[in-house]
Design a protein that fits this description.
The protein is an alpha/beta fold. The protein contains eleven helices and 16 strands.
Length: about 290
């Protein structure tokens, strides 16, 4: 696909003239995209995602894709008769489950995304956090009701070595990263994709962290989209109960990223075709933009 072959998104971005200033603004900037949810399992949306990622690279933006895969992991565990258990949304991962997690994330899902981007005219390579020491992890420590909870082989980023990302960028390649890391003893850890994306965005000095979700963004108490939030406003909305449930950890990831130097983080609806282009190349965007303030 050439840069001029953009008819598929011009209807949403209005005209190339409208989008051009944004292309110029973000040329050479790194964008980390957390890819998951409905956008990843719907064939039409996944094809659109691949074309959009390819377009971003062709207009000079440097995208880095970090993907999840919870539903696919769950399905494979079920097929293998391995019981799944969750605590506050986190999968308890023993050694048997970890083998499946790595197989699904670093294997089938990662390569499907890579193949889709390459088929769309891009140049992508799939890696995991274990490649070239990208993601050093530490065991996640969790306390619930005053007691320590053992989540097994669930980890969180302890250190990010982004050398492999920069090498791939210099070669014109789009990195597609499975959120699997390793600890100081070489043990493999399952890392939440949101958390991994935030840590990688901070480590590479990304201009944007885009979090594709299955909701429009942050909604106020009347159900209306909140288009922009500062760190202080996020904390205030969490305190008064406006933000709750699964949105809290996503916003915590956004805050951690912007407080670590990422210019802004965006929560946007991956179910909307071309949502990334609408966010990046239109003045108003379509998600919730989070800044340090």
């Amino acid at each position: 696909m050439s840069i001029t072959d953009t008819k598929y998104w011009l209807k949403t971005a209005r005209t190339l003239t409208d989008a051009l200033p944004y292309m110029q603004k973000y040329a050479g900037k790194r964008f980390v995209i957390k890819y998951g949810g409905h956008a990843m399992v719907d064939k039409e949306l996944s094809d659109i995602f691949a074309r959009d990622i390819t377009l971003l690279r062709q207009v000079g933006i440097l995208p880095v894709v970090v993907h999840g895969g919870g539903p696919q992991i769950g399905e494979m565990l079920k097929r293998l008769n391995i019981q799944s258990r969750f605590i506050d949304g986190l999968r308890v991962t023993d050694a048997a489950a970890m083998e499946v997690v790595e197989m699904v994330l670093s294997g089938s899902i990662n390569k499907q995304i890579v193949a889709a981007i390459n088929a769309a005219g891009g140049k992508a390579v799939g890696i995991s956090g274990k490649d070239d020491n990208l993601l050093h992890a530490k065991k996640t420590e969790m306390t619930k009701d005053g007691e320590r909870v053992d989540l097994g082989l669930v980890g969180e980023p302890d250190k990010v070595n982004p050398g492999i990302i920069r090498s791939l960028e210099q070669a014109g390649v789009i990195p597609v990263i499975a959120p699997v890391g390793f600890g100081p003893d070489g043990q493999t850890y399952n890392i939440n994709a949101d958390t991994a994306a935030g840590a990688i965005a901070a480590a590479i000095g990304a201009s944007r962290l885009l979090m594709l979700t299955d909701v429009p963004g942050v909604l106020d108490k009347s159900g209306q989209l909140v288009q922009q939030l500062t760190a202080g406003e996020v904390r205030a909305l969490a305190a008064d109960g406006t933000i709750s449930g699964g949105m809290i950890p996503k916003l915590e990831t956004c805050l951690s990223a912007v407080e670590s130097g990422v210019e802004a983080a965006v929560i946007l609806d991956g179910r909307v075709p071309h949502s990334m282009l609408l966010e990046i190349f239109t003045p108003q965007g379509i998600g919730t933009l989070v800044t340090r303030g």
